[in-house]
Amino acid sequence: MEELLFAPAEMGELSRIHGPALTWIASFEPTKEAPLPKAWKGEGPNPIVIIQGGTEDSHGYYLGAKGGRGTVNHGNMDGGSFIFELNGVRWVVDPGNQKYHDLEKVGFNLWGNCQECERWTLLTKNNFGHSTLTVNDALHLTDGMASISSFSDGENPSTTIDLSKAFGDNLVSARRTFSKDGTQSLLIEDRIVPSDSTVSITWQLLTSADVQLTEDGAVLQQEGQTLTLKQLSHPELSLSIIMLDPPPLALDRKIDGLKRLELRVPAYLLGEGENLISVRLSAGE
C-alpha cells in the first residue's frame, strides 16, 4: 500500500482494494512501538511462521514458511513451502501470483478447485512450483490441510508443519521442521512414514540463483553472495536441476532464471517406520 504515499503523478494504476486501504490509513493512530519478535506464528486456514534475526542481525536472516491447503480462498498447493533470505539475497523463492485477467480472457478455468481442475496445471498454483515435498509425482490433495503442530521461539527458534493430509494414502505421515540452527543457517528436516502406496518422495527447492551441484548438495551464487546446500541424510543420492525458465506452460508466469532443485528418494531406500530427509542451508559457517 506504499503507493498511497506517492505523489499522484507517481501512483500509477491502483487496484480496487486501495480505496478501503486509504480509509483505514486515514483513521489509523499509532498507540505504541515495540520490536518485532524474532519468531512468530499465525494460525487459521492459511497458517504461517516467520523467523528472523532481529534488529541487531547483520545477516538479514529471514524465513517465511506456511501451511494451508489448495481450497482456501486464492490458495495454492503450497503447504510446507518456504522462502529464505540471507545477506540481502532471497535464495529460496515463491513464484507468487499472476494476473487473473490474463488467464480468464483466454478461457482458462481459474476458479475450479476440484482435484482434477485446470487451476492446478499452473506452476504458481501446484506443488511442483513450490519449495515443498511431492510424493509419487502427484498433486497435493486440494483439501489436505497442512497445519502447524509445534512452534518454539528463543535463540534457536523452530517450527513443525504436519503435511500428512496433503498426501492421502500415498504416505502414512509427513512432518516438516524448520530450525534456525545458526546465525546464517537453516535446517530443514522431513520425517516421513511411507505407506504401501509410496513410490518416491521428491524434496524441492525453488531458486533464481546460479547453481553448481556438488557431491553432497549444491552451491548457490547470486549478487556476489554464496549459499551452501548440504543434504545430510542421503549421501548416496545427488540433486537434480529442473529449469523452469521458460516455464512448462505458455500461460505460466515467467520468472528469470527460475529453477527447481530436486532430491528424489525412491521408496526402496526408505525403511519401515519413520525416515528422515535432512537438508541444511548455510553461509559463512
What does this structure look like?
By secondary structure, the chain is mainly beta. It has 2 domains: 1-33, no CATH class; 37-282, Beta-galactosidase, Chain A, domain 5 (Distorted Sandwich). Helices cover 7% and strands 37% of the residues. It is built from 3 helices and 17 strands. The chain has helices at residues 8-11, 18-27, 100-104, and strands at 39-42, 48-52, 62-66, 82-86, 89-92, 133-135, 147-152, 158-162, 171-182, 185-194, 200-207, 210-214, 217-222, 225-231, 240-243, 259-266, 275-282. A hairpin with a 2-residue loop joins strand 12 (210-214) and strand 13. The longest helix is centred in the first third of the chain and has 10 residues, at 18-27. The chain is globular, with a radius of gyration of 20 Å. The model has no long low-confidence stretch (mean pLDDT 94).
SSE diagram, text form:
Layout: H1 8-11, H2 18-27, E1 39-42, E2 48-52, E3 62-66, E4 82-86, E5 89-92, H3 100-104, E6 133-135, E7 147-152, E8 158-162, E9 171-182, E10 185-194, E11 200-207, E12 210-214, E13 217-222, E14 225-231, E15 240-243, E16 259-266, E17 275-282
Antiparallel strand pairs: 1-2, 2-3, 3-4, 4-5, 6-11, 7-8, 8-9, 9-10, 10-17, 11-16, 12-13, 13-14, 14-17, 15-16
Summed up:
The protein is mostly beta strands and 285 residues long.
